[in-house]
Amino acid sequence: MNAVNSTAFKRALLIAPLPLLLALLYGLPLAGVIGWSVTLPTPGLEQYRQVVTDPSIRDMLLRTLRLCLSSTVLAVAIGYLLSYCWVFASRPWQRVVEIAVFVPMWISVLVRAFGWLIALGNEGILNTLLMSVGLIHGPVQMTRNEFAVVVGMVHFMVPYAVFPLSSSMRQIDRRTLLAARGLGAGGLRTFWAVLVPQTLPGLLGAFLIVFVFCLGFFITPAILGGGQTTMIAEYVYLQMFQTNNWGLGAALSVVLLAFIGLMAALLMWASRVNKLVR
Amino acid sequence: MDKHHPSDCIEILMDRAREGKISRRRFVKAMGMLAVLPAAMRAGVGFAQGKQLVVVNWGGDAIDAYRKSWADEFSRSSGIPVKIDGSGPTDGAIRAQAASGRPSWDVVDAEPYTALSLGRAGICQPLDYTVIERNKVAPGFAHDYGIASYLFSYVMAWDSRKYGAKGPRTWADFWNVQAFPGKRTLFKWMNGMLEAALLADGIAPSALYPLDVPRALRKLDELKPHILAYWGSGAESQQLMVNGDVSVGAIWNTRAGLLEQDSDGRIQWGYDNAFVTPSYWAVLKNNPAGAQPAMRFIAYAQDPKTQVELFKLTGNSPANPAARALIPADLRARDCGSPENLAKQIRLNGDWYADHYAAALEQYLRRLAK
């Protein structure tokens, strides 16, 4: 008994530096932010009351949710197709997917946002193409709005969806797919009844990772949204650096953090349920 | 040799070093010659004058321009290395620096209202007008906590493909989408935009301040369907104009000048009814390099020759009236601070902004994100 205890103690001692470091570098500043949210400009819960009741803030939170959800659904759907190609397609196609997924990851988020501005602009490649084939007669407004923000966010997030999805696809026993085909299921049926259920943990993980990432988006909406689609992260910046309202900025950050914490808890809970089902 | 004499020399050297009168290099060399360098180190002389001086501006091309115009030569003559940091000294960023207890910024190139309100809040220190010369800027451009570093303007720029050479000249024109059809762009951080709306609504320039914010916002609502984007950075405003995404813009004169060049005259602009404002030098309290080097840097940047250099590099107009005579004749029309151009423009009121900026910006941003 004693020996076990001392081993446990030694183990705790070995991993202690990390939690301590986290508490110091992360916990302390976080406590400071929580402190601001209830003390600035005057002590009390006024800032939280404002977060809940202010119609402009509610609009902004709803916009953030809407943009993040639509971007997440699209990014995960595209990520799913790409992962499928990456895992199951022939070698050359796998290379194509790797290039399509990895190369954008190494390009700065600013460059990508400005790239989309150019591609989607009035005289950009997409409008020019659509006009030359006669689908549209004048340029369509595709930038400086929510559409452009979603395009930019999806482009950024697809690789983050691909990793959990492809890793869960790699773990699948391919013989189950062959067996389904052998038992007479068509391609679609095999996909829905055999592949998708087995990749559910990956799908869930991808969804949550992408969604949580999207909540923190800052530069992409600021550039592609033309200053009119403020999301929560930019709003926090505004409160901190432009309008000097640190209390409200801190309260919004705490709300955002709590929400993300909830999502993470959901992810853990869901993955455990999944194990039980298996 | 008298035992007391070297220590006296050291004392003199240390005093001069502390006051920033000799460079760190010279101090170390002199101490080395006196063979007392280790002792000097032990004595703990604060090498304020040898410490890096951090000058913070708004980034982009201005980083290189400041380095070429001000930092390099100042470092050479003073021995104080200067680092130009382009992260943007917004009001909140400076407050955050101060709140940390150990600011890492020395001199900031701040908006006038930022310098004024942070000075009142005890976050910026009063400028030392025994080092900096008050009369090297036009009257009204030097305050306790800030002094003009240069001038710039918010001007109207338009696409001549749409309107020929007869672009909008008044803010009523800017709001007139019948006479001047096409998308617009306004400044996301509000400065000058409330004034533009009020002038378009018929208020006389002399009656602008104090600004009637609700009235300005109502007038802005009117134009909202025609505003494609609110630009947040100079590069963004330039891109909106050059791509033809917008036909009219309220943008900085510095970017307007570049646009005119880059588009071979397609984008035109003028100083009629533009809003001119200085930018201010301010110094953080308890700044790491010490007060003296910061004040000396500001004084150095008052030199007309360096200001003309900056004007040539960025289009920012010299704050020192003596620099005007050094501007080459072919560039004078561009100078927003020249008497002819000043006469066409309206000056933004830094005092009003110092009192109302945060509250008004919050309302403005909420209005445009609706």
Automatic annotation (TrEMBL), chain A:
Gene3D superfamilies according to UniProt: MetI-like
Top-level lineage group: Bacteria
GO CC, one annotated term: plasma membrane
Any Pfam family hit: BPD_transp_1
Entry-linked PROSITE patterns: ABC_TM1
Cellular localisation: Cell membrane
InterPro entries associated with the record: MetI-like, MetI-like_sf
Bilayer topology: Multi-pass membrane protein
GO biological process: transmembrane transport
Main location group: membrane
ABC transmembrane type-1 domain sequence ranges: 61-267
UniProt keyword Transport present: yes
Keywords linked to the UniProt accession: Cell membrane, Membrane, Transmembrane, Transmembrane helix, Transport
Transmembrane portions of the chain: 12-38, 64-87, 99-119, 147-166, 178-196, 202-225, 246-270
Keyword Cytoplasm included in the entry's annotation: no
Record-stated family: Belongs to the binding-protein-dependent transport system permease family. CysTW subfamily.
Protein's name in the database: Binding-protein-dependent transport systems inner membrane component
TrEMBL record, chain B:
Record's keyword terms, sorted: Periplasm, Signal, Transport
InterPro entries: SBP (IPR006059), TAT_signal (IPR006311)
Single Gene Ontology MF annotation: thiamine binding
GO biological process terms, semicolon-separated: thiamine transport
A Pfam family per the record: SBP_bac_8
GO CC annotation terms, alphabetical: outer membrane-bounded periplasmic space
SUPFAM superfamilies noted in UniProt: Periplasmic binding protein-like II
Compartment list: Periplasm
Main location: periplasm
Keyword Transport: yes
PANTHER family: THIAMINE-BINDING PERIPLASMIC PROTEIN (PTHR30006:SF3), THIAMINE-BINDING PERIPLASMIC PROTEIN-RELATED (PTHR30006)
Similarity field: Belongs to the bacterial solute-binding protein 1 family.
Record-given protein name: Polyamine ABC transporter, periplasmic polyamine-binding protein
Organism annotation: Verminephrobacter eiseniae (strain EF01-2)
